[in-house]
Structure formats: structure tokens, C-alpha cells
Specification:
- The chain has 179 residues and is of the alpha+beta class.
- It folds into 2 domains: 3-86, Ubiquitin-like (UB roll), CATH 3.10.20.30; 96-178, [2Fe-2S]-binding domain (DNA polymerase, domain 1, Orthogonal Bundle).
- The protein has helices at residues 31-39, 96-103, 113-129, 138-146, 163-178; strands at 3-8, 11-16, 19-20, 27-28, 57-60, 63-66, 80-82.
- Helix 2 runs antiparallel to helix 5, helix 3 runs parallel beside helix 5 (163-178) and helix 4 packs across helix 5 (163-178).
- The termini are far apart.
Length: 179
């Protein structure tokens, strides 16, 4: 059984993964299953299994990645993976996105929260890294979450209907992150 060594939420971890085939016909278990089943990460969730809903989103080397379709053999050794499980600061202080989602009750059932928080985190961090220190407008946040933004072509689904609170939470967290 092959093994992968990565940096998960700031810690070096190593775990086996299921693999089959070789060369161009190689296949392996999804990153989502590896994280949940072997490394006890329960933030990323299985939603659709076809990279459409975002519930499985993790940050892989800083980029929002749909872990339900990313096969383990394509994840490089020493890759940096961040999940919702490790987002809080040392000592347990919640991340600004976690605080905003809680304070504004942005997640009714909570199933979508992982994807919305992790996707928004990657988006906001990439904006800040590019030197864009403007708090995104409500329309920019809506465009990002719907996949209509030039810097995001994938949507994030919430079936409970808390969209206005989600947009407000991303905006509030952005103010704090940029602040």
C-alpha cells in the first residue's frame, strides 16, 4: 500500500492510501476519504462526489480543492493541506471566518459550512497575497460563492437558504482579516 507524507494543519503526518493500476490507468482513493478515514479530519464532508457542491473543500498548497475528486496519487509528498479541523489558532481561538459564521448564524444545518469557510478562506487569502486589501463588496462575495467570479468558476451550495447571512459572514470576516 503506498504512503503519503504531508503537512496537515501545520503538522507532519504520514498515512497509507489505497491504490490500483499503474501509469496512465492509475487510480487511488479520494483525498476526502484519506483525510476522513485515516487522519480523523471531519470538517470536509462528502456532498455530491462530483466536485459540484463544495462540501469537501480543503486547501491544498493554498488552493481551494474539491477533495472528493482529487485522487491521493496526485497529491505530492510534502503537500500542505489545511482543513476546517485545523483552522482555529493554537489555543483554540476560532478563525475570523469561523467566528463570523457563528455570530451571524450563517449555517443553519452546517453541512455546507466547511466548503463555504474553506473556499472563502482561499479566496480572501489569495486576494490579500495579491495586494488587494479592499474588503470585497457584497456583489463580489455573491459572485465568488456562485462561481460567477473571474477568480472562481466553482460554486458553493447551501440548501438551507441562509445565503444573506453567509454573504454577511464572509464580509465580516474579510474586514477582520484585512483590518
Amino acid at each position: 500500500m503506498p504512503t503519503r507524507a504531508v503537512r496537515l494543519n501545520g503538522s507532519e503526518v504520514t498515512a497509507d492510501y489505497e491504490s490500483a493500476g499503474t501509469g496512465t490507468s492509475q487510480a487511488s482513493e479520494p483525498l476526502l476519504y484519506w483525510l476522513r478515514d485515516r487522519l480523523d479530519q471531519h470538517g470536509p464532508r462528502f456532498g455530491c462526489g462530483i466536485a459540484q457542491c463544495g462540501a469537501c473543500t480543503v486547501l491544498l498548497d493554498g488552493a481551494a480543492t474539491r477533495s472528493c475528486v482529487r485522487q491521493m496519487h496526485t497529491v505530492a509528498d510534502e503537500a500542505d493541506i489545511r482543513t476546517l479541523d485545523g483552522l482555529a489558532a493554537p489555543g483554540g481561538e476560532p478563525h475570523p471566518l469561523q467566528r463570523a459564521f457563528t455570530a451571524l448564524q450563517a449555517a443553519q444545518c452546517g453541512f455546507c459550512a466547511n466548503g463555504l469557510i474553506m473556499g472563502s478562506l482561499a479566496w480572501l487569502e489569495s486576494r490579500i497575497a495579491a495586494g488587494n486589501n479592499a474588503v470585497p463588496t457584497e456583489q463580489e462575495i455573491k459572485d465568488f460563492l456562485s462561481g460567477a467570479s473571474p477568480d472562481n468558476t466553482r460554486n458553493y451550495l447551501c440548501r438551507c437558504g441562509t445565503h444573506t447571512r453567509i454573504v454577511a459572514a464572509v464580509g465580516a470576516a474579510a474586514k477582520e482579516m484585512i483590518g
